[in-house]
Amino acid sequence: MTRTELENQTPAAGRLRTSWALASAGSLLLALGPLLGVVDGAEPAFTSWPLLALLALAPPAVAGVLLMRGRPFVAAGLIAAVGVFAAGRLLGDLLIAFEPMDVARPELFRPATLLAVTPTAGVWVLVAGHLLVIAGGALAAGRAGLPADETEPPTLVGLPVLIAAVAAIGLLGKPFTSTDAFQLDRGPWELPVLGLVGGLLVAIAVPLATALSATSPDPDTRQGGGIGVALAVLAVAVPGLAAGTLAPGLGVSPGPVTALVAAIVLLGAPLHGRALRLVRGERDEVRDPALPSLRRMHVIAGAFAVAAAVAVLVGALLPQLTLTTGGPAPELAAVSLLWVAGLALGVVGLLLFVPSTAAAVRPALVGVFFAVQLAAAGTTESVLAASQAGVAQPGAGFWLMVVELPLGLLALICAGIAAAIERESAGEVRREQLPVAELGAVLLAGIFAVGAFALPTTRGDGFESPGLLPGTDPAVSWTLLISLTALIINLVLVNRSRPARGAAVLAGFAVLAGVRALELPLTGDRVENAVAAPGTWLALASVVALVLAAGLMAARGSR
What we know:
By secondary structure, the protein is mainly alpha-helical. Helix content is 68%, strand content 4%. The protein is built from 20 helices and 9 strands. The strands form 4 sheets. It has a 3-stranded antiparallel β-sheet with strand order 8-7-9. Strands 1-2 form a two-stranded antiparallel sheet. The longest helix is centred in the last third of the chain and has 31 residues, at 396-426. The radius of gyration is 25 Å and the shape is globular. The protein starts with a helix and ends with a helix.
């Protein structure tokens, strides 16, 4: 009997739909519980229910899309993996019902006094949600009674399990740091028995579910299990990270950051082998599915890029801050940079829809993406500082800016797949020696960029804009460091690129350097006696060198 016939069997298909319905109902309850409130006498440290609802509903939403697209085995693996985590999370939430003052869950409630809080119905809604998720996962664990497809052996287990172990270590650390005497910052090891066992079960679930899915002989089950583990880790790690970022008196702990990074890497682990084979020209037609068309990947990348640009531009229009006093929030100076970077991203995204320009502009997406992140960093720093001080909460514009990041990353991933398809179709391309003029322009661009990103762009009375060295603006400094690293790497790789594609890469990073150069004219009016610091002039010099190198490379490619 073929795999398709098995998928269409009524009992098996019915059990899979039932497991999805149970998991969906449980996720709805997990989204509803924080909205109802879990205790009387304390409020969440920040407006957390939209974030918690998104994290709760993401697994059944992804599984539902997979079911509609005819991928039931992937959906079953996802639901089963999420169900493995629900037992530990259930015990962690039960601790709220019995010993709420020992709980470190500021996304649900933050005590403001020593008076004990009283659990409410919201706790039991969460408990019921976890029970339904466990039931759905148990029903999907047997892949709804369908046998595995043994046409492909399991891949190496070591890499995903190692990544999962790193995530587990992160989940065992403190979820955040606290200077508030009423808000505990306890990790699982410091909780009462119920919380300790729950935290250990969640940590153990990461490598356990990863190993079970990675050793499956069915590639769909491996893929679904990896997605489910990553989503479950995000659901545990992100609330603590958000609390440490947004709530006054709380700070970010290394634990959730480690788990977040590991979850993102784990999500892409199944693609590593395929990408490596593709780069080496060793793609296996049996193990690797047929590649999508180049045109299709350009359109998808363009759609994500345009969506990210819309999020940036609308976010620039809407308030970035909401004052806790209820008055009008001040307009942030750094918002002006969002218009430049957002428009550039939108133009590149639109050109990806045009068949005659898509391949030419695609490499520029990398530099433009980092330009958007650099433009957003200043606003992000101001919003986080105001939230930590307790004078404001993030507004709708900030959250739209947050939405831009995953959309932009998805656009980059699709553009990278398109580049791999193009390379495979083109075959081996003869490398050309980079002419001295182009090499000199690229080297100058890199040297100028190091100074532009390391040194301040603006100075004024008692003010100096941030550079690479962490100071009062760590978000900006880290973004500068990451952007500069990406620029240098691409300047090295451009030597191995075809001239037309290398020219587009250089043009994209010219936008990045341009955003750095525009910091003074677009944001300097808020600084008393603002003058251009060395970073501005070096950024302008880097823009000129990048444009010159791009022009020379494009001219060589047209010959």
